[in-house]
Amino acid sequence: MFGSNARTRDDNLPVPRTLGPFRDCTSNQAIAFAELSKPKHAGLIEDSLKEALKLASRFRDIDYIELAVDIAMVKLALKILPHIHGHVHIQTNPNYSYSTEKTIANAFRIVQIFKYLDLGIETTRRVCIKIPSTWEGLMACRTLEMAGVRTLATTLFTFEQAALAAEVGCTYIAPYVNQLKVHFEPGFVDPQKLLPLCVSVQAYYEAIGARTAVLPASLTSTDEIFALAGAHHITISPGLLRQLSTPVSGPVTASLFDSELPYLEPKLISYVNDEAGYRGAFGRADNGAGVTKLTQAIIIFNSMQEKLIELFTAQQEMLFRK
C-alpha cells in the first residue's frame, strides 16, 4: 500500500508510475501541512477558500477556514487518485477524536466534498476515512460503516483497540509500529516497536473471520517492512519504497509471519456493548502505554491541524488585501 509518508503530493506522482501499482494512498494533517506549506500550493489554498465560501451555507456547523482545510485535503487526494488503485485516505479533524457525533459529521462532510469536486467518484470504492482509535472514534466507525462509508482505525497501539475495530466493522486498522513522535522528535527511537502486535492481530482476525484488514503504519526502516512481509497491507513511504527497489546485499530480516504462532481459538472478544469494560481493558494494556501513545499521537495531529488553520488564515488575510 502506497502510504504513510506518500503525502499525496505532486512530486510523489512518479513513485506510483515507476514503482507501482499501489492499492491505496494515505494522508493526515501532518502530511497535508508539509505539502500545503509549499509556495506552489498557494493557488490550491486560494481555490479551497473560494470553494469554502460557496459551500458555507451547506455546512453551518463548522468554521469557514476549517471547511477550506477539508476541501484542500480532498483536492490533494484527487491529484493522486488516478495513479493508484483502491482508496485515498483522508483523516478527520483530530480535535474531534473524543466526539462520536462530530467525527461522524466530519466524515460525511469529507464524502460530500469529494462528490462536489468529482461528481463521478465512487466514494465507497475510492474513499476511506481515517479516524483515531478512541472509543468515540470507533463508535463513529460503526455508524459510518453501516452507512457505507469505509473507515480506517488509525493511531492504534493495542490489541483491545484492534478487537473493537473489527467488531464495529472497520475496513482497515493501522497499528503504529513506532510511536508517532518518532517522525517529529529527532533522535527518538521507539523502545517497544509493535511489530508483534501486527502479527497477533492478523492471526486473531483470521481466526474469527473478521473482514477488517491489518495495515501497519509508522514504519521507519526496510527491516521493519521485511519483518511484516505477510501482513494484509503495509503503509510504506516513498523513501522506503525507493530503498526496496534497489538490490539487497546480504540477508534480509526474516518475516515474523513465518515464525511459529500459537493456535488461536476462533473466540470473539466483544467490547461494543461494554464501554466500561473496554475502557478498563484498554487502560491496563501494556501498563497504560497504549493510552499514553494514543494521547500523544492525537496531540501531535491536533497541533498539525492548528498549523493548517493558521496557514489558511494567513492566506485568507492576503486575499482580503488584494
TrEMBL record:
InterPro entries: Aldolase_TIM, TAL/FSA, Transaldolase_AS. Transmembrane segments: none annotated. Pathway: Carbohydrate degradation; pentose phosphate pathway; D-glyceraldehyde 3-phosphate and beta-D-fructose 6-phosphate from D-ribose 5-phosphate and D-xylulose 5-phosphate (non-oxidative stage): step 2/3. It catalyses: D-sedoheptulose 7-phosphate + D-glyceraldehyde 3-phosphate = D-erythrose 4-phosphate + beta-D-fructose 6-phosphate. One of its GO terms (biological process) is carbohydrate metabolic process. Pfam families: TAL_FSA. One of its GO terms (molecular function) is transaldolase activity. Its EC number is 2.2.1.2. Keywords: Pentose shunt, Schiff base, Transferase. The keyword Isomerase does not apply. Catalyzes the rate-limiting step of the non-oxidative phase in the pentose phosphate pathway. Catalyzes the reversible conversion of sedheptulose-7-phosphate and D-glyceraldehyde 3-phosphate into erythrose-4-phosphate and beta-D-fructose 6-phosphate. This is Transaldolase.
